[in-house]
Amino acid sequence: MTDDFRNYRRWFYAAAIYNLVWSVAVIVFPGTLLRIADMSATGVEPLVQVIGMMVGVYAYGYYLLAREPNRYCGLIWIAIAGKTLGPVGFIHAAFTGALPLKFGWICVFNDVIWWPMFWRFALKYAREPLSVPSDGSATNK
Q: How many distinct structural domains can be found in the chain?
């Protein structure tokens, strides 16, 4: 039996672990993220922690995708939306002066590096419902 999803599983497990670690770090140490991004706004720590909680929810989605990619393939569109809207929001905030350009590095690691594999999976497996033959390999209908 071949696993058509083997490479994708690795990426989704990596995304789950990355998001979980990032989430916990930002929730427990919100000031560290603000210092890395050269931000010193008072009172924003709770907002940073809320973002951390949302990232933690994505971690669970990536875990589900890694475990059963054929069953949860539709979640990739939510992942792509989040990984696209984050950088779009950053670009707007940077151009209006709301966020420093240095904050962009966070988008690179949290969002942009995942685009190629996520889009590859989405276009190959999540465009149409999948049929799963008895041998376990996935094919599009």
A: 1
Q: Contact, 104 vs 98, CB < 8 A? A: no
Q: What is the pLDDT of residues 57-82, one digit of tens each?
A: 999 999 999 999 999 999 999 999 99
State the residue for tokens 């210092």. 35
Task: Let me know: does 86 contact 93? Beta carbons within 8 Å.
Answer: no
Question: Residue 3: left (phi > 0), alpha (psi -120 to 50), or beta?
Answer: beta
- Which pLDDT value is given to residue 94? 94
Contact 69, 12 (CB under 8 A): yes
Q: How far apart are CA 7 and CA 23, in angstroms?
A: 24
pLDDT the model gives residue 1: 45
Dig out the tokens for 89 from the structure. Answer: 């929001």
pTM of the model: 0.84
Q: Would 73 be classed as within a structural domain?
A: yes
CA gap 81, 72 in Å, rounded: 16
Q: Which two tokens stand for residue 68?
A: 């059963």
Domain ranges, residue 115: 6-127
